[in-house]
Amino acid sequence: MLIASILIGLVAVIHIYILVLEMFLWDTPKGRKVFGTTAEFATQSKVLAANQGLYNGFLAAGLIWSLMLGASGRPVALFFLGCVLVAGLYGAATATRKILYVQALPAAVAIAAVLFLS
User: Fold this and answer.
1) 15, 34, 46, 82: most buried, per Cβ within 10 A?
2) Is the pTM higher than 0.90?
């Protein structure tokens, strides 16, 4: 369960980072560089990005909650990792392929670890 827990924690940290980028850094040079946006677009879409960031925070919170539950948190972890995987696949199909590697792949690896190593 240790490897699975580490991977769940990693996915949670990724989503906390995404929350920070989308909620607080969206219209800064760093945020614009990460997401490849212009200053004008970032200003116009700031509220929408903050909303996305909040949802990423909920995913992180669910994953952290699953870790706090210990062994009984396995179903919670699988649910939230599944949500991350679906979001990553959708984002890769509709926004940028990079999301496949940043979001979906870590979630898939963590799901495998939860299923086969715990």
Assistant:
1) 15
2) yes
Residue written as tokens 């939860």? Answer: 114
Q: What is the pLDDT of residue 1?
A: 78
**In the chain, which residues have pLDDT < 50?**
none
Q: Look up the domain containing 59 and give its range.
A: 2-117
Going from the C-alpha of 74 to that of each of 86, 94, 103, the distances in angstroms are: 18, 30, 20
- How many angstroms separate the CA atoms of 23 and 44, rounded? 14
pLDDT at 118: 76
Q: By C-alpha distance, which of 30, 20, 29 is closest to 50? A: 20
Cα separation, 118 vs 115, whole angstroms = 6
Q: How far is CA 68 from CA 29, 79, 100, 118, in A?
A: 36, 15, 27, 15
**How is residue 99 annotated by DSSP?**
H
- The total domain count for the chain is 1
